[in-house]
């Protein structure tokens, strides 16, 4: 069967599954819409959380980043997985114990202030909108490539599918759909990795294949890759740091606490029945995420090796352009792979020397998607990867849009503007807000603002510098006041935004390589994408100072903090019942 026909069949079958699940799991109450009725089993919630988290960036971009950054790309692995350890130990159980629907609702109640709640909503929307721009762009790119339609049409198709199952089912529909999407995306990611690991090392486990010798040779895979890249003038794959050791530390920590502070991730832990299930589901999420994240370095190294050996089969002997394989021709049509014959010799010469390098563009994002084609795997594997990429893009987009919609309908409308609104009208408002969020995200995907490409990773820095410190102080500090929390959030997010936009023209953008020397005016050599950790320090520092000069919180608020952390029967009971 032809490849494109297989892609249509496999992708069509997965779409039908998602829509069927959404219809079956449609929400009938605000509790269903916001937190899936709090009846999701921790294992199922862990799987849904993994799908919610593993966006197009994880499925498509991360292995590509590691493939070209080498050791420096490990910041994404360490940061994005480490954040779940923080969630499991320091945030998820306590927020679930409090028993409300959203992060801004907790902040508003803990800091006894509607202003604090409104500031939290502002931070949440900035983080989520920044993140969703990249997700909708990924939806458009993936759909256009695999369904062979133009970008705009691909984005419209994705919008319709997300709109259907997110608006109809809310968190309940999204949760069960994400479980299905996780199964699709993890299968699509690991099967090609197993095939390619067997081809190169005869080891069926990619994680072990990464450290194995190549078939018919005593040379280890990573040693072979180091030799090839250094011969072409690139830095050694296994030891090249990301600008500096301090920058890598800051980048890792920023991604870690940013992950723990992202609202669409946190809200998932409100869907489990009991407090102890929140910690358990975070552990399961880490297990399910680790399957992909431990496979990604193997995929990255093997894809880079296959790519370079395709272009240069033997040292100094380059592939003739007219003999380029079909996958090369296919990706040239997308504009994500470009060759320029600079010396008119008809060969594809690839080098770190930009004056001689004829591979003028190799987009990092093509490696995972093109990897099965480069390795000449069966068509059904390529079709499966297509379905996995689309599932990854859709799952995170839905979670982000729900976080935005709940902030608008529950926190702003019910929490501040119309406190007496009925549950039926709130549910209607939630669906209207979700529809508007989908349409708004689609518009931004079609017409991204000028700063969008450079600030996709800003979502982590913003969450790290604003929401994460507020949650930590809200849970673990009885003395932190409402004035301190508000000043801290505004100070942290303000410093981070200022730094990023000041350097937006030279910042590192996921999916590209950093060009040029480190700018002298970078603070301690920290790149803008890693600056969230500095914003978090500013947030904590401002809050500490303001707390010292303001009146202590009311006694009932201090008792609330104690009860959240040290409740009687915390594994079985709720501190607060769900609001009607």
**What is the N-to-C succession of helices and strands?**
HHHHHHHHHHHHHHEEHHHHHHHHH
Rounded Rg? 24 Å
Number of discrete helical segments: 23
Total strands: the figure is: 2
CATH architecture: Up-down Bundle
* Number of structural domains: 1
CATH topology name: Sodium/glucose cotransporter
| Unreliably modeled segments | 450-455, 505-517, 570-580
Mean pLDDT, as a whole number?
Answer: 81
In spatial order, strands of the major sheet run 1-2
Approximately what portion of the residues adopt beta-strand conformation?
A: under 5%
CATH homologous superfamily assignment: Sodium/glucose cotransporter
Largest sheet: 2 strands, antiparallel
Instruction: Identify the overall geometry.
Output: globular
Broad structural category? mainly alpha
Q: Identify the CATH class.
A: Mainly Alpha
Amino- and carboxy-terminal Cα gap: 54 Å
Please describe what this structure looks like.
The protein has helices at 3-24, 30-35, 42-53, 56-69, 74-98, 103-110, 114-147, 151-201, 206-209, 221-231, 245-261, 263-266, 275-311, 326-334, 366-374, 379-417, 423-446, 452-455, 458-465, 467-476, 482-502, 532-548, 555-565, and strands at residues 337-338, 361-362. α6 crosses α20 (467-476) and α19 packs parallel to α22. The chain is built from 23 helices and 2 strands. It has a single domain, classed as Sodium/glucose cotransporter, CATH 1.20.1730.10. It is mainly α. It is globular and about 75 Å long. A two-stranded antiparallel ribbon has the order 1-2.
């Amino acid at each position: 069967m032809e490849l494109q026909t297989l892609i249509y069949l496999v992708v069509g079958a997965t779409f039908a599954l998602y829509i069927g699940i959404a219809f079956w799991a449609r929400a009938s109450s605000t509790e269903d819409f916001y937190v899936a009725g709090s009846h999701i089993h921790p294992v199922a919630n862990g799987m849904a959380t993994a799908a919610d988290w593993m966006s197009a960036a994880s499925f498509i971009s991360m292995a590509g980043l590691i493939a070209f950054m080498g050791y420096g790309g490990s910041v994404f692995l360490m940061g994005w997985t480490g954040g779940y350890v923080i969630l499991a130990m320091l945030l998820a159980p306590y927020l679930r114990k409090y028993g409300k629907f959203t992060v801004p609702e907790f902040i508003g109640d803990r800091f006894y202030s509607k202003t604090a709640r409104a500031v939290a909503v502002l931070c949440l929307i900035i983080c989520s909108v920044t993140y969703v721009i990249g997700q909708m762009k990924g939806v458009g790119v993936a759909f256009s490539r695999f369904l062979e339609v133009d970008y705009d049409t691909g984005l419209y198709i994705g919008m319709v599918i997300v709109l259907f199952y997110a608006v109809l089912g809310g968190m309940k529909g999204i949760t069960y759909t994400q479980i299905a999407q996780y199964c699709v995306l993890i299968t699509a990611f690991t099967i090609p990795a197993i095939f390619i690991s067997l081809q190169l090392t005869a080891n069926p486990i990619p994680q072990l294949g990464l450290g194995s010798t190549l078939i018919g040779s005593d040379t280890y895979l990573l040693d072979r890759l180091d030799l090839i890249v250094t011969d072409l003038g690139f830095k050694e794959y296994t030891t090249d740091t990301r600008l500096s050791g301090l920058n890598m530390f800051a980048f890792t920590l920023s991604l870690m606490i940013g992950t723990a502070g992202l609202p669409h991730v946190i809200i998932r832990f409100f869907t489990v029945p009991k407090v102890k299930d929140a910690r358990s589901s975070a552990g399961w999420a880490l297990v399910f995420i680790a399957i992909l994240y431990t496979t990604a370095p193997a995929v990255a190294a093997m894809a880079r090796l296959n790519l370079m050996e395709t272009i240069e089969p033997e040292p100094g002997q380059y592939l003739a352009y007219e003999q380029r394989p079909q996958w090369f021709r296919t990706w040239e049509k997308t504009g994500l792979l470009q060759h320029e014959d600079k010396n008119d010799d008809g060969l594809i010469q690839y080098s770190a020397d930009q004056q001689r390098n004829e591979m003028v563009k190799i987009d990092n994002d093509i490696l995972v998607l093109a990897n099965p084609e480069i390795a000449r795997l069966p068509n059904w594997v390529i079709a499966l990867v297509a379905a996995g990429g689309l599932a990854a893009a859709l799952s995170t987009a839905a979670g982000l849009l729900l976080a935005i919609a709940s902030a608008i309908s529950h926190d702003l409308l019910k929490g501040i503007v119309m406190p007496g609104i009925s549950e039926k009208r709130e549910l209607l408002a939630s669906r209207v807000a979700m529809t508007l969020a989908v349409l708004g995200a689609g518009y931004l995907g079609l017409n991204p603002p000028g700063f969008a490409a450079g600030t996709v990773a800003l979502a982590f820095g913003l969450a790290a510098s604003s929401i994460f410190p507020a949650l930590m102080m809200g849970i673990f500090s009885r003395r932190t006041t409402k004035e301190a929390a508000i000043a801290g959030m505004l100070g942290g997010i303000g410093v981070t935004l200022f730094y990023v936009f000041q350097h937006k023209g030279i910042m590192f953008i996921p999916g590209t390589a950093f060009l040029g020397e480190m700018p002298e005016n970078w603070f301690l050599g920290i790149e803008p994408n890693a600056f969230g950790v500095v914003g978090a320090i500013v947030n904590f520092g401002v809050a500490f100072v303001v707390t010292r000069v303001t009146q202590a919180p009311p006694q009932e608020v201090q008792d609330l903090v104690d009860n959240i952390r040290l409740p009687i029967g915390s594994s079985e009971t709720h501190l607060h019942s769900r609001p009607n």
